[in-house]
What does this fold into?
Amino acid sequence: MMAGVALVSDQGVRLGEAREPGEEPLNIRGLTVSYGQVPAVYSIDFSVKSGSLMGIVGPNGAGKSTVLKAAMGILPLISGQVTFFGKPLKEARHRVAYVPQRASVDWDFPATVYDVVLMGLYPSLGLLRRVSKADKAKVAESLAKVGMQDFVDRQIGQLSGGQQQRVFLARSLVQQADVFLLDEPFAGVDAATETAIMGVLKGLQEDGKTIISVHHDLSTVSTYFDHLFLLNRKAVAYGPVAEVFTKENLSIAYGGKLAAAQLDTMGL
It folds into this structure.
């Protein structure tokens, strides 16, 4: 087994020394989730190093989004344990920000860009939701970071797909969390928006934050991320990109579906 890389056997058993959950930003052990009678993911083990920018990669239907939703309590667990900084989500919720897939949002909801970003502060505003000048400043700062400060009064449904994604990223930024979970933030956005979002994520990492992002474009994995979690319903490997992103691991995850030409373009 390569140093720094956790590998998993064909039976879903982690190879190497087992570890108890520690203070990692996200630590998952034995995660199994089903949709009805069909297992979506099973016996998933992986952890995230503090300050890393980790991509979650695998073929369609591999369970990438399922892992994030289960970690956030959106989907129930059949078995397993999820901790953030060594604590269950309910005790660490203030340190965690989640950006869902754009396709899962009702964009006809009558809310402005300002309203959507302010929602990120609701847990700290209390029942009366009194908004202070400091709160308004946080909203403005977050929108400026994603280049959406000029759209503050725009109805969210009137924005382009890329603009909507930027607004939801701003909503996560206003929470001032320590770990960010993003479900395919680059899906359906143009190249300029993708570059802008990636710049924001890199900036968060420079500030010591941890970012975990579901990703589908294999050609940008090595450029965007320093750590990688590769799966197909069960974990294949996780660790530094240079050690996980190999032809052998990709063949296990994708079952030989990747063409040789694709691998060549990735330098594998």
Notes: Confidence is low (pLDDT under 50) at residues 9-21.
